[in-house]
Amino acid sequence: MLKQIFEGVYLVELEGMGEQLATKNLVPGHRVYGERIVKADGFELRIWDPYRSKLAAAIKKGLDELPIKRAKKVLYLGAAAGTTVSHVSDIVEKEGVVYAVEFSARALRELIASCENRSNVIPILADARFPSSYRRYVDAVDVVYVDVAQPDQAKITVDNARFYLKKDGWVLLAIKARSVDVAADPQKVYAQQRAILEKEGLKVVKEIELSPFEKDHELIVAKY
Q: What SUPFAM superfamilies does the entry give (predicted)?
């Protein structure tokens, strides 16, 4: 059984596993990180593991609006080896673009290898703290998705939103509490990071704590 829950995102029933998140594979026959591939209703789906993707975890925990959709442009900060990037690539389809910024050269090499067949992914080796450094590669975007292990995560988010986000665009910030302050109560960290976003004009519309999929993590959804 297949059920669409967002544009490009599905729940598929697997024997012995129950309902699993999945995205329609943009490149049929190709895996990105060893994920399971299944076929349903005449097309191919890639199973999306919430223990390996904070965005998938947020969907499982009750995200009720996903601004990442077909033909949208997404600036993805902290792309790593491309696990979540690949599913975002599936969702925006060939008409969309994912600008995948990663600071680690090693991780970027893995990203390039894993997404080499995905023409809508543009890997960029850069430091997200300096958004002007990649302006030659990035157009105005509909969504800024941030997953960076930095103490100034909210500031990085705001700086990039100011630089690239369209009016009425969306921000998704995956806060890693221990990266901000290893000793602080995660709830206080979330409140602190939220306050920074709001002070700079972002309207927070949803906060989702990601346990048990990710410990001491929260996803904030905000509008610019």
A: S-adenosyl-L-methionine-dependent methyltransferases
